[in-house]
Write a structure and sequence with these properties.
Layout: H1 3-8, H2 15-22, H3 26-34, E1 42-43, E2 49-50, H4 53-67, H5 72-83, H6 89-123, H7 133-138, H8 142-145, H9 148-154
Antiparallel strand pairs: 1-2
Helix pairs in contact: 2-4, 4-5
């Protein structure tokens, strides 16, 4: 939400406006509220949710955290730390460091998948014959069809 948009908005706002301002769907706004990531949201006499500027900023924070791949549990902890003016930045850093380590592990696993698939593609003739090392691998037997020295070079063993 730009500061200009915030200045032009009459607070509090309905869920649709909060969703638009934070670039989060109304369904996700309700979900985040149900998880306790937003402080108690005000309601009109007829029960409609009313979101403050602070609520919208929290939704933006949550969206940015999701965009960076943090889990909902990590985001809950980060939101709590963000709202706590007496927080220790070491707590925030610990969460971020763990997340980076998790991302690194996932990237390495994806790179291994990429190497395996690239090798399988290189060994698939892609012609009219029914033999296909890609399908063999998915069925659990492709490595037997690829010579051992090739498996070693390609990181399949």
């Amino acid at each position: 939400m730009s500061s200009r948009t915030a200045e032009q908005t009459s607070w509090p706002v309905a869920i649709g406006v909060a969703a638009r301002l934070s670039r989060v769907s109304a369904k996700m706004v309700r979900h985040y509220e149900s998880l306790g990531l937003l402080t108690r949201v005000a309601r009109t006499d007829s029960g409609y949710r009313q979101y403050s500027e602070s609520d919208v900023r929290t939704l933006e924070f949550i969206k940015r955290g999701r965009d960076m791949g943090f889990s909902m549990a990590e985001i809950a902890e980060l939101v709590s730390l963000w709202n706590n003016r007496r927080r220790a930045s070491a707590s925030v850093k610990r969460i971020a460091q763990k997340h980076v380590a998790d991302l690194t592990e996932r990237i390495e696993a994806m790179q291994a998948m990429q190497r395996s698939l690239s090798s399988l593609i290189a060994h698939c003739q892609g012609d009219d014959r029914p033999d296909c090392p890609i399908l063999d691998d998915l069925a659990g037997g492709a490595c037997r069809a690829i010579p051992t020295d090739v498996q070693t070079r390609q990181g399949l063993t």
